[in-house]
Amino acid sequence: MVHLGPKPPQHRKGTWTDVPASFISELHALEESLTLPVETLHKITDKFISELDKGLSKAGGNIPMIPGWVLDFPTGKESGDYLAIDLGGTNLRVVLVKLGGNSDFDTTQSKYALPSDIRTAKSEALWDFIAECLKKFVDEEFPEGVTEPLPLGFTFSFPASQDAINEGFLQRWTKGFDIEGVEGNDVVPMLQAAVERQNVPINIVALINDTTGTLVASMYTDPEAKMGLIFGTGCNGAYYDVCGDIPKLEGKLPADVSADTPMAINCEYGSFDNEHEVLPRTKYDIQIDAESPRPGQQAFEKMISGYYLGEVLRLILLELSKEKKLFFQGQDLSKLEQSFIMDTSFPARIEEDPFENLSDTQELFQSVLNLSTTAGERKVIRRLAELIGDRSARLSCCGIAAICKKRGYTSGHCAADGSVYNRYPGFKERAAQGLRELFGWGPEIKEDPIIIVPAEDGSGVGAAIIAALTEKRLKNGLSVGVKK
Ligand code: BGC
């Protein structure tokens, strides 16, 4: 394997001869606070490893480390037709997956944009919306009707406690969701009831985290896959542990599950360092947290994931213009003052701007924020976008390195999905570089032994495979949850 892609942008601290002098000291201070040297990455990774262990212990810790009750590795031989849905980002996805049984599959899918107010709607509105989408999809795909209820794998991309594969008690909403009446409850019967109200012939077989789905889907086709990772609206990772190494399951394992039975763990590591001991948070991160629906939660995720990257940039620009009176002088800042007006595509488009004079960035600011920009301002904005993207990618490596070190992986593929991984310019190269630094691979290493690779479709194919594995266990009279 060769090093992936071009080298990440070099830090250019101190070379700002072409922007106004008044910007320089501000810029240097921002560079300082957003740059993560390898020593910091090591410190974060070390704490990460001990927090992963703590999460598996009886006492527990900040990182939930949820056993996902996927107790088998996929073999590639799983077959059959399954429905899968994915709730957790900006869209609801419904997928019909035909598993071929030879590490192959076919998918047909529809995407439904979540209504803009659903993140804060009432619980029934959410479940009814999903059930209506499912009805539309099933009516289109099965116009003749079905003889048996369709088995469905429900990818629910939030921290949900599971004592069995077919349940999930929402611990807390993340990613700006704040729907009343769901936290603390099992989401499976809620969706099943809504589906029944719509008369759709569906049986929810398994509840799956998107990272677990990603892990299993990738293992279906790639024997080197070691973990499933999402860098999207939120961030998280899953890997396989063995039941005997999960102290909090002691005394709860059913008789047919032995100490060496594999168990997929949904780490929920977006909550790493909620106690704020090692992450170098800036005042912008602190403000984002304080103004979020769940302050104090998802500390790591709030510095990394797509839901927040544009907001970090917005807060910095607001400070530079409103408080420091350096940027956008004499202009109407009302748009820039709107929280979350800049989603992640905003810094991504700035970084993608191919023009020397950053004319795409100029147009973006004009059209979305009604702000005109000087050439000097645009240079600084571009640098800020780079810094925010680089910080996200480098922090992301700490979770990966921690899982590798914990499980003793010295080689393998880390299967990643999500909008930031797939679409944020430079993320892949920066993350690869971060891993090289963390593992100390110098130029003498021609092929990185641990690489991040694009995942198979976890929330579709992964959910389907897990549904198939679950049906097989049930058919064989095997357990899919704690000792009853
Ligand atoms: C959720 C995880 C999910 C991740 C990526 C986080 O906010 O808590 O369950 O895996 O986002 O979607």
Which descriptors would you attach to this protein?
glycolysis, 5-stranded mixed sheet, 6-stranded mixed sheet, single chain, Hexokinase, domain 1, alpha/beta, Hexokinase_BS, globular
Q: What value does the Rg take, in angstroms?
A: 23 Å
Tell me how many strands there are: 13
**Through-space gap between termini:** 47 Å
Q: Number of helical runs?
A: 14
Q: How does CATH name the architecture of the domain at 19-78 and 210-484?
A: 3-Layer(aba) Sandwich
Strand order of the largest sheet: 1-11-10-9-12-13
- Main β-sheet description: 6 strands, mixed
Specify the structural class.
alpha/beta
Given as residue ranges, the uncertain stretches (5+ residues, pLDDT < 50) are: 1-14
Query: What sequence of helices (H) and strands (E) makes up the elements?
Result: HHEEEEHEEEHEHEEEHHHHHHEHHEH
| CATH topological fold name of the domain at 19-78 and 210-484 | Hexokinase, domain 1
The portion of residues forming beta strands comes to 15-25%
- What would the average pLDDT be, to the nearest integer? 94
Residues in helix, %: 40-55%
Supply the CATH class of the domain at 19-78 and 210-484: Alpha Beta
Give the ligands present.
beta-D-glucopyranose
What best-fitting shape do the alpha-carbon axes yield?
globular
